[in-house]
C-alpha cells in the first residue's frame, strides 16, 4: 500500500503514543502488542494485582444498595441518582456497568449483581 492515502501513508501514524523525537525499538512495539508494559519500578511486576483493592469502597457499596430498590416511574430513579450521588444518570450507569464486571461486587452482593447482569445481557441482545 505504498504511496496510498490514509493514516499509514507517512502522515505521522504511530502504533502507540510516544514523545516527539523518540525512537521506537522493536522490543517496545512487541511489548505493546503483547500487553507486557509492566512498570520496571514495580517490585513484583504485577500491576493488575497492585491496582485491585481488597474490598469494595463505600461508593460501590452504596450503588449496590441503591440498586436493590425498585422504581415505579422512569424519571424517579434518575432524580434519585442525582439527589443521592450527585452524578448524572449517564455517569452513574457507567460506574454501575464497571462495578457489575468486578468480582468484588459479585462477592459482596451476588443476588443483585447477577440480576443486573441478566438485565444488561437481555438489553444488549435486544439491540
Structural class: mainly alpha
Counting DSSP H or I runs of 4 or more residues, the number of helices is: 7
Run of helices and strands: HHHHHHH
The total of beta strands comes to 0
Shape: globular
Q: Look at the structure and give the mean pLDDT.
A: 75
Distance between the termini: 37 Å
Largest sheet: none
Strand content: under 5%
User: Roughly how many Å is the radius of gyration?
Assistant: 22 Å
Helix content: 55-70%
User: Runs with pLDDT <50, length 5+?
Assistant: 6-10, 13-19, 37-42
Describe this structure in words.
- By secondary structure, the protein is mostly helical.
- It is 55% helix and 0% strand.
- The chain contains seven helices and no strands.
- It has helices at 26-34, 47-51, 58-66, 74-85, 89-100, 103-108, 110-126.
- The chain is globular, with a radius of gyration of 22 Å.
- The protein starts with 25 loop residues before the first helix and ends with a helix.
- 5% of the residues are buried.
Throw out a few tags for this protein.
single chain; 127 residues; mainly alpha
Question: Short summary of the structure?
Answer:
By secondary structure, this protein is an all-alpha fold. The protein is built from 7 helices and no strands.
Write the layout of secondary structure elements.
Blueprint: H1 26-34, H2 47-51, H3 58-66, H4 74-85, H5 89-100, H6 103-108, H7 110-126
Amino acid at each position: 500500500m505504498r504511496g496510498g492515502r490514509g493514516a499509514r501513508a507517512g502522515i505521522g501514524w504511530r502504533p502507540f503514543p510516544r514523545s516527539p523525537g523518540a525512537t521506537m525499538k522493536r522490543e517496545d512495539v512487541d511489548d505493546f502488542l503483547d500487553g507486557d508494559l509492566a512498570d520496571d519500578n514495580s517490585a513484583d511486576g504485577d500491576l493488575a494485582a497492585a491496582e485491585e483493592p481488597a474490598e469494595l469502597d463505600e461508593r460501590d457499596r452504596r450503588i449496590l444498595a441503591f440498586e436493590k430498590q425498585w422504581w415505579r416511574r422512569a424519571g424517579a430513579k434518575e432524580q434519585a441518582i442525582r439527589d443521592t450521588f450527585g452524578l448524572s444518570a449517564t455517569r452513574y450507569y457507567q460506574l454501575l456497568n464497571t462495578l457489575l464486571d468486578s468480582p468484588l461486587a459479585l462477592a459482596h452482593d451476588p443476588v443483585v449483581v447477577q440480576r443486573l447482569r441478566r438485565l444488561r445481557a437481555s438489553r444488549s441482545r435486544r439491540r
